[in-house]
Amino acid sequence: MYKLTSENKFIDVSDYGRPIANFIAKKLKSTKVSAIHITLLFGLSGLIAIYCIATTHYWAAGFFLILKSILDAVDGQLARAKSQPSFTGRYLDSIFDSLLNLLLCLTFSWYTNSSIGWGLLAFICIQTQGTVYNYYYVILRHSTEGEITSQIFETFVPVAYTDEKQQTVNFLFKVYRILYRTFDSLIYKLDPIASKSPILPKWFMTLVSFYGLGFQLLIMVVLLAAGWIHYIIPFFVAYSIFIPCIIAIRRIFLK
What we know:
The chain is an all-alpha fold. It has a single domain (6-253), classed as CDP-alcohol phosphotransferase transmembrane (TM) domain (Four Helix Bundle (Hemerythrin (Met), subunit A), Up-down Bundle). The chain has ten helices and no strands. The protein has helices at residues 18-28, 35-54, 58-81, 87-111, 116-143, 166-190, 202-208, 213-225, 232-239, 243-253. Helix 1 (18-28) packs across helix 3, helix 2 packs parallel to helix 4 (87-111) and helix 4 (87-111) packs antiparallel against helix 5 (116-143). It is globular and about 45 Å long.
């Protein structure tokens, strides 16, 4: 029911919503609610958060961003609890994440009178940070008999599971590639042999988890609650400075 085996779990600061997600998934296991329903719900939660930001209801925005983060964990957990893996859900989840991140950054730039260019730069930085986290996390899962619905290299359309349509998987895969291909290629070029390294240690994965989407959203919530919305875009641009450090640690000390 988990992405990693118990002996390979690490402190993931981005996954703070997991205990609540586990509880919700257990309650929904015997219902007709599917993981896709939860994915759609977290997309809606993200849109409501954006609306709240646009109307300067920052505390409400923070609530719905945290709710979005929790529901983002529930959908995968529910799919595992029901033994219903889905490439449809896997790609839809990532597509929603990317589009919501873009809308968040554009909203921040618009309502703080920053240029759209700065908003797009913040989006690129957030996506790159998240890709670093996902890259090493998927490598860890594949090297330790963890959950492998996500692939290290998403280059080929997977064969759909029996309860989903291949045509849907084909379409969502193409959209996913449009949104993520550049970021995936960049991180791979920076650390192409990471998948051949020994099992990544827990301390390294905890370090990487500070770039996970859940922690990124938590930072946004804290800055919104403090009334520091103007600092969100510059923060995430500057936050990318640690990407070369993380990759250098992996390449030098964990080879």
